[in-house]
């Protein structure tokens, strides 16, 4: 007997794939957003800040529904994507990656912003007096110093993506092999009679994945800490 | 060579400062905290933009509001030593030291890495991270990092302020070596007059954002009208001199200066080297005849050039103290009581003997003068 069933393997693969792609698009965007929030002042900043944080405070189903309306084949953005580029987001894993990324976005922004705010800007000024252009200063000083924050944000975001349920099921539904991630599979098993054993197996799988991710992040964080040097 | 003439309105301070320096050595910006020293040095660095005016370093304009020139910080070819070392915490000492070399645009021959490392005694620290360094070591690395960027000018903003006394002396010594070895002009900000007497050639006196006086350290520290800024209690004359000989038996050094010779506590410098001696006005006594059988070994003869009114102000001087300038070849300020003035019937033109205890001359005040005018 195989260790895992086909449905379980598919759900694991899908969960990891969706989380990976969600992080891939949201992480760079979150870095830019965190930079704007940490370093710039402009009128209406608090509104911008509020919009960024909406996924954190709104029920996920609301986000999923808004996505469905906007990104569905007949939605404002979705119709354009479908007719011009032939891309359909609804009922596809791509849509799930969009939904997961949006839900994780404020968490990643917060983690990066916090670490950006602790970077001593005097160090950046010092680098400029030594001849480094702003982009060089960012790459050689700022980025290395906020790497722990970026890693923390990525871990948080990855965990949020793995656990994403409400927005995903509302936007892309529950399609085995396409949008049926671990939480959605678990929900599915819990809704049918005799599904308790299968549901329990998915609970165990989820715990193992979560613990591995935590352990991995801990090892990474220690290595980073050693690299940057304790204190300054 | 430096030309600086800018104005800038800050939150609490209005800066309107103009000064020039022809010499190639150390220009000191001196003033109380809040006088605008750091703002001015940051305008040299391009970290603060002036509202208007112009700044020139070695004939190169780095800021000119009329011509619309404002060279970016990273292209100004400066080396900046900050009060807090500002070393990059994620890099080794070596990576910190070479950071400027990698990025800084420079059109003159680079300063030799090995020579700089050896001069500053950094060889054994190269593999370490800044977090493991002591305060003095950090400032040495910061000094090396600024120097190795091959700057046209070194800017130093109170580089000793966060150090304890022994470390201060150590770093001061290294700054002297850098000044004498590497031939880079230095703008040095400080509120400690002793550091400036040791290091600087040109002194720019600042108060509330304005330049009160510009001149040689000897000239300005000897001006009574500036003593309220340069330090009233410790006020005195700064005299340029040459090392004539050392007396190891008594641990004394004989200096020759325009008015004769002076014996002071032993200085660690070779014969023929030029130094600067600060003699506090309150440490000198006057006599009408050449005294014998006394312990003061420096007895200098001269005529009274000026008698101050002694309208005592401030905390440290009482109205019955009188400042008298005696011409002993150089002007020497002496502080005596009004009672002594009256009893000795002193007047301008009268011949007197100035008595100076060798031990009253602080070894720390014996600054080595840097090489000048090349």
How would you portray this structure in words?
The complex is a heterodimer of chains A (232) and B (374). Helices cover 79% and strands 0% of the residues of chain A. The longest helix of chain A is centred in the N-terminal third of the chain and has 34 residues, at 6-39. The model of chain A has no long low-confidence stretch (mean pLDDT 90). Chain A has one domain (6-228): MetI-like (MetI-like fold), CATH 1.10.3720. Chain A is globular and about 70 Å long. Chain A is mostly helical. With 374 residues, chain B is an alpha+beta fold. Chain B has 2 domains: 2-221, P-loop containing nucleotide triphosphate hydrolases (Rossmann fold, 3-Layer(aba) Sandwich), CATH 3.40.50; 236-240 and 270-366, Beta Barrel (OB fold (Dihydrolipoamide Acetyltransferase, E2P)). In chain B, 22% of the residues lie in helices and 34% in strands. Chain B has helices at 37-45, 93-103, 113-119, 135-148, 165-182, 193-199, 217-221, 227-230, 338-344; strands spanning 2-9, 14-21, 26-30, 52-57, 60-64, 69-70, 78-81, 153-157, 186-190, 202-207, 210-216, 236-247, 252-257, 260-265, 274-280, 284-287, 298-307, 321-327, 331-337, 351-356, 367-368. In chain B, strands 7-8-9-3-10-11 form a 6-stranded mixed beta sheet, with helices on both faces. A 5-stranded antiparallel beta sheet of chain B has the order 2-1-4-5-6, with no helix packed on it. A 5-stranded antiparallel beta sheet of chain B has the order 14-13-12-15-21. In chain B, strand 12 (236-247) and strand 13 (252-257) form a beta hairpin. Chain B is globular, with a radius of gyration of 22 Å. Chains A and B meet through helix 6 and helix 7 of A and strand 7 and helix 2 of B.
């Amino acid at each position: 007997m195989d260790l895992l069933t086909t449905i379980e393997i598919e759900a694991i693969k899908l969960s990891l794939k969706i989380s990976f792609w969600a992080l891939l698009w949201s992480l760079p965007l979150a870095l830019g957003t965190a930079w704007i929030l940490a370093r710039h002042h402009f009128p209406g900043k608090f509104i911008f800040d509020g919009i960024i944080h909406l996924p954190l405070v709104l029920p996920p189903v609301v986000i999923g529904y808004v996505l469905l309306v906007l990104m569905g084949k007949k939605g404002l953005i979705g119709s354009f994507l479908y007719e011009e580029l032939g891309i359909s987001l609804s009922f596809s894993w791509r849509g799930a990656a969009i939904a997961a990324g949006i839900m994780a976005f404020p968490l990643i922004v917060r983690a990066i912003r916090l670490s950006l705010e602790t970077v001593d800007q005097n160090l950046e000024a010092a680098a400029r007096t030594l001849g480094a252009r702003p982009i060089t200063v960012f790459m050689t000083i700022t980025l290395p110093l906020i790497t722990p924050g970026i890693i923390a944000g990525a871990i948080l975001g990855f965990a949020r993506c793995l656990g994403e349920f409400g927005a995903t099921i509302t936007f892309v539904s529950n399609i085995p092999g396409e949008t049926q991630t671990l939480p959605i599979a678990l929900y599915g098993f819990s809704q049918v009679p005799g599904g308790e054993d299968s549901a329990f197996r998915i609970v165990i799988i989820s715990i193992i994945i979560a613990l591995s991710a935590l352990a991995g992040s801990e090892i990474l964080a220690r290595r980073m800490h050693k690299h940057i040097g304790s204190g300054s | 060579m430096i030309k600086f003439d800018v104005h800038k309105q800050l939150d609490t301070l209005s800066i309107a400062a103009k000064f020039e320096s022809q010499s190639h050595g150390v220009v000191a910006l001196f003033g109380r905290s809040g006088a605008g020293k750091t703002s001015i040095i940051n305008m040299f660095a391009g970290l603060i933009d002036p509202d208007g005016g112009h700044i020139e370093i070695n004939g190169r304009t780095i800021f000119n509001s009329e011509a619309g020139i404002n060279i970016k910080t990273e292209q100004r070819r400066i080396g900046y030593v900050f009060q807090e070392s500002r070393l990059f915490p994620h890099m080794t000492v070596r990576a910190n030291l070479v950071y400027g070399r990698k990025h800084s645009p420079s059109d003159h021959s680079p300063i030799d890495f090995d020579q700089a490392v050896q001069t500053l005694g950094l060889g054994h620290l190269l593999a370490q991270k800044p977090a493991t360094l002591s305060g003095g070591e950090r400032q040495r690395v910061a000094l090396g990092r600024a120097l190795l960027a091959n700057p046209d000018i070194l800017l130093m903003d109170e580089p000793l302020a966060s150090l304890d006394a022994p470390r201060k002396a150590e770093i001061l010594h290294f700054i002297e070596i850098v000044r004498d070895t590497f031939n880079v002009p230095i703008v040095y900000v400080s509120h400690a007059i002793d550091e400036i007497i040791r290091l600087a050639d040109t002194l720019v006196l600042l108060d509330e954002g304005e330049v009160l006086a510009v001149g040689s350290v000897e000239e300005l520290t000897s001006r009574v009208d500036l003593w309220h800024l340069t330090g009233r209690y410790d006020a005195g004359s700064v005299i340029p001199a040459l090392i004539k000989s050392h007396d190891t038996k008594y641990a004394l050094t004989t200096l020759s200066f325009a008015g004769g010779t002076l014996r002071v506590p032993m200085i660690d410098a070779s014969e023929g080297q030029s130094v600067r001696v600060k003699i506090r006005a309150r440490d000198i006594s006057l006599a009408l005849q050449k005294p014998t059988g006394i312990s003061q070994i420096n007895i200098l003869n001269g005529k009274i050039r000026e008698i101050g009114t002694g309208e005592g102000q401030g905390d440290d001087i009482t109205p019955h103290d009188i400042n008298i300038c005696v011409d002993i070849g150089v002007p020497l300020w002496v502080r005596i009581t009004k009672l002594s003035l009256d009893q000795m019937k002193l007047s301008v033109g009268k011949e007197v003997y100035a008595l100076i205890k060798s031990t009253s001359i602080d070894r720390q005040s014996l600054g080595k003068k840097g090489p000048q005018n090349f």
